Amino acid sequence: AFPATQNASGGANTLDDYEEGTWTPTLAFGGASVGITYSNQIGSYEKIGRAIALRCYLQLSSKGSSVGTARLSGFPFTAGVSLIPWAVRMTALTSIVGHLQAYTDSVAFVDFFEYTGTGAHTQLGDSNFTNTTDIMIGGVYRA
Description:
Layout: E1 18-23, E2 26-29, E3 36-48, E4 51-63, E5 70-73, E6 84-93, E7 99-104, E8 109-115, E9 121-123, E10 129-142
Antiparallel strand pairs: 1-3, 2-5, 3-4, 4-10, 5-8, 6-7, 6-10, 7-8, 8-9
C-alpha cells in the first residue's frame, strides 16, 4: 500500500511515491505550432519514485504552417538527465530512407532523427511530415 500523499521523509529505501495520469503531447516545428491540429492527442504515464513510464500517440489532421525541426513536448515531469532514447513508430512521413530514432536531448522534449547508416543523424523537420502523420513513442525516464 502507498500513502495517500508522498511522504518524502519515509527513508531512502521506502517506496512512497506512485502516480498514474495523463498528459497532453504537442508537436512543434521550429518552436511553433501554427495551425497544427490532431485527430488523436493522447498521453499517459505511471510514476514510481523518480521513474516515469511514458507513452503517447499523436495523429495529425493538419501539420500546419510552421517550419523547422520537429519537437514533441508536454512531458508531465521534467527529465533529470538528457540523451534518453525512446521507442518510436511513425507513419505517413516523406523523404525518409533510414531508421527513425527519437531521444530527449533536453529535459522536456523529444527530438526525431533519421539515421542512414553512414554515421550521420539528420533531425526531422516539417518537410518530413504530412497532414496524416502519426507518432507513437514510449519509454522510461528519470525525473
